[in-house]
UniProtKB/TrEMBL annotation:
It comes from Candidatus Kuenenbacteria bacterium RIFCSPHIGHO2_02_FULL_39_13. Residues 33-174 form the DUF4131 domain. This is ComEC/Rec2-related protein domain-containing protein. Residues 224-491 form the ComEC/Rec2-related protein domain. It comes from the Bacteria. One of its GO terms (cellular component) is plasma membrane. Signal peptide: none annotated. Its main location: membrane. The chain crosses the membrane at residues 6-24, 31-49, 55-75, 248-270, 276-296, 317-334, 340-359, 380-400, 412-435, 440-462, 474-491. It is a multi-pass membrane protein.
Length: 497
C-alpha cells in the first residue's frame, strides 16, 4: 500500500472511530482504549523496522487510528457532576461570567455565549451558557456579567437536535429569560482587547456598507462578507431557502469553501499567474476571517477552504483528498463533536468531495453543451454544480426542503460571488479613506446583488420549484450517498461515457 493510501486510511479510521463512539455505547474504558492504541502503534513501528509489511501494517494502522478516534471522542465528553453547568438544568441560579464570543445579534434580542462561570453558592463551573438577552442595553464581547436565570438543555427543535449543535460549541445550558443582568466590568486581557478591536472594525465596516449600499442589498452584502444576517427581510430569506441558496448568506464551510475557490478562479481569469492567484485568494480568505471576527465556525471553514486552495494551487484539486482529510483530521482532533454536531462542517467536507470527484464529469458535460471557458465561467460553474450535487441530500435531510431549481439558480448566481466579495472588500477599504467614493462601488454592488434578488424572487415563485418534505430517515440518505459513491467509481473506471 502506498504511503498516501496509508495516510488516507488512517484519517478515515480516525473519523470512523468518532462516528462509532457517537452511535454505539462502547463497553470498554477510555484509558484502556488509549493503551491498546499505543501498544498497536509500537507493534507497527517494530514491523516497520523489520520491513515486514504485507497487509499487516495497513490493518494495524487502521485499528490504531480507529481506537484513537474512539479515545479522542471519549476524552471530549464532559463529566456531569456538581462542577459542570449541565448538572443544573431546570434550576434557577445566580452566576457571574464573561461573554466569550461575539454576540449573535437578531432583530429583537442578542444571544450571548457566557463562559468562565462562577455560580453563587456553588463556585466555578465547567461549560458555557447561551443567554438570550435584550438588544438594549447592549452587551458585547468581553463584558463580565452577573445574571440570574433558569437553565435548560438545548433540546430538540422541529426534529433538529439543538442540544447536540450547542454541545459542539461547549455550550451545555440555555437561559431563555434572564433576570437582573448587570454589567460588572469590561476589563479585558491583551488577546481580548485585540479581538474587540477587530470586532470594532467589523461594525465600522457595517456602517460604511449601510451608507454606501441601499437597503436591503446592504444587508445581503453584510451577510456575505461579515456574517451578519440579522437585517435581511424574512421574505428575502424565504426566497433564498426556496431556491436552495441559503448557504451563500451564511458563514458556513460550504459558503467559504466555494467562494474561496471561486476567488482563485476569478484572480486567474483576470490574468494572475497561479501562484499569485493562490496568494491573493489566501489573503482574501484571511481578510474575510478578520472581518467576521474569527468566529470558531468561520475558522473551521477557513481551514477547509485553505486545504482546497492548496490542492488547487498545486494543480491537484481532483486528487486533493489527502489535504481534505488532513484538514478534517486536525479539526476533529481539536473538537471531535463537530463531526455529527456541526452541519456546516459536514456540508463543507461534502462540498469539497463533490468538487474533487464529480468535478471532472460535470466539466466534460459543460464542455459538450459549449459553456464558454472565458473568465473561468466553465470552471466556476463546475465547482458550484459539483459541490451542490454532493451536499443536496444532506440539505434535504436537515432542512426538509428540496429545491428543484437550485442547480439553475446556483449557476446564475454563484459566478458573481467572487466579484461581489472582492468589491465588498474594496468598498470597506475605500470607505475608511474616502466615503463618497465608496458610494460608487456601492452602486455597482447593489446592481449585482439586485440580480441575485431577482433570480431568487422569480425562482421562489415558480410552481413546483421546491418541495417541503417530511423528515426523511437517515438510512435513505446513506443509501443515496452509497449510490453516489458507486456512480463515481463507475465514472472513474470509464464504464460511463
Amino acid at each position: 500500500m502506498k504511503k498516501s493510501q496509508l495516510f488516507a486510511l488512517s484519517c478515515l479510521a480516525f473519523i470512523g472511530g468518532i462516528i462509532l463512539s457517537q452511535l454505539i455505547q462502547l463497553p470498554w474504558d477510555n484509558f484502556y482504549n488509549f493503551v491498546a492504541a499505543i501498544s498497536l502503534l509500537i507493534l507497527i513501528v517494530t514491523l516497520w523496522i523489520k520491513k515486514n509489511f504485507g497487509l499487516t501494517v495497513p490493518i494495524l494502522f487502521g485499528t490504531v487510528f480507529l481506537l484513537l478516534g474512539i479515545w479522542r471522542f471519549g476524552l471530549s465528553q464532559p463529566i456531569i457532576d456538581k462542577n459542570h453547568i449541565a448538572n443544573y438544568h431546570n434550576q434557577t441560579i445566580k452566576l457571574t461570567g464573561r461573554v466569550v464570543d461575539e454576540p449573535d445579534i437578531r432583530l429583537t434580542r442578542r444571544k450571548l455565549t457566557i463562559g468562565r462561570i462562577k455560580a453563587e453558592g456553588i463556585g466555578f463551573l465547567k461549560g458555557r451558557i447561551l443567554v438570550n438577552a435584550p438588544n438594549y442595553p447592549e452587551y458585547n464581547y468581553g463584558d463580565l456579567l452577573q445574571v440570574k436565570c433558569e437553565l435548560t438543555a438545548g433540546g430538540i427543535i422541529e426534529d433538529f437536535d439543538y442540544g447536540k449543535f450547542l454541545n459542539a460549541k461547549n455550550i451545555y445550558a440555555v437561559c431563555h429569560q434572564p433576570e437582573n443582568i448587570l454589567l460588572i466590568n469590561n476589563n479585558l486581557t491583551i488577546s481580548q482587547e485585540i479581538r474587540q478591536r477587530i470586532l470594532a472594525v467589523k461594525y465600522k465596516y457595517k456602517q460604511i456598507v449601510d451608507h454606501a449600499v441601499p437597503y436591503p442589498q446592504s444587508e445581503i452584502l453584510a451577510s456575505l462578507v461579515l456574517g451578519l444576517r440579522r437585517g435581511i427581510p424574512e421574505n428575502i430569506l424565504n426566497n433564498f431557502r426556496q431556491t436552495g441558496l441559503s448557504h451563500i448568506i451564511a458563514v458556513s464551510g460550504l459558503n467559504v469553501s466555494i467562494i474561496t475557490l471561486l476567488l482563485m478562479n476569478g484572480f486567474i481569469a483576470i490574468g494572475f499567474r497561479r501562484r499569485y492567484a493562490f496568494a491573493a485568494a489566501t489573503i482574501s480568505l484571511i481578510i474575510f476571517l478578520i472581518m467576521i471576527g474569527f468566529q470558531a465556525s468561520s475558522i473551521r471553514a477557513g481551514i477547509m477552504g485553505f486545504a482546497a486552495l492548496l490542492a488547487m494551487q498545486v494543480g491537484r484539486l481532483k486528487n486533493g483528498i489527502n489535504l481534505l482529510l488532513l484538514a478534517a483530521f486536525i479539526l476533529l482532533l481539536i473538537n471531535p463533536k463537530l463531526l455529527l454536531g456541526d452541519v456546516g462542517f459536514q456540508l463543507s467536507f461534502l462540498a469539497m468531495l463533490g468538487i474533487m470527484y464529480l468535478g471532472q464529469p460535470i466539466e466534460k458535460f459543460l464542455e459538450r453543451i459549449r459553456v464558454p471557458k472565458f473568465f473561468e465561467i466553465r470552471s466556476s460553474l463546475m465547482m458550484t454544480l459539483s459541490a451542490q450535487a454532493m451536499v443536496l441530500p444532506l440539505i434535504v435531510y436537515y432542512f426538509g426542503n428540496l429545491s428543484v431549481i437550485a442547480p439553475v439558480a446556483n449557476a446564475l448566481i454563484l459566478p458573481l460571488l467572487p466579484l461581489i466579495t472582492i468589491s465588498g472588500f474594496g468598498l470597506g477599504i475605500v470607505g475608511f479613506i474616502i466615503l463618497p467614493l465608496a458610494h460608487f462601488i456601492g452602486y455597482i454592488i447593489a446592481i449585482l446583488i439586485g440580480w441575485i434578488m431577482m433570480v431568487t424572487s422569480l425562482g421562489a415563485r415558480l410552481p413546483y420549484g421546491s418541495f417541503n418534505l417530511e423528515k426523511i430517515d437517515f438510512v435513505w440518505i446513506a443509501l443515496i450517498y452509497i449510490l453516489i459513491g458507486w456512480s463515481i467509481r463507475l465514472l472513474k473506471t470509464k464504464k460511463f461515457s
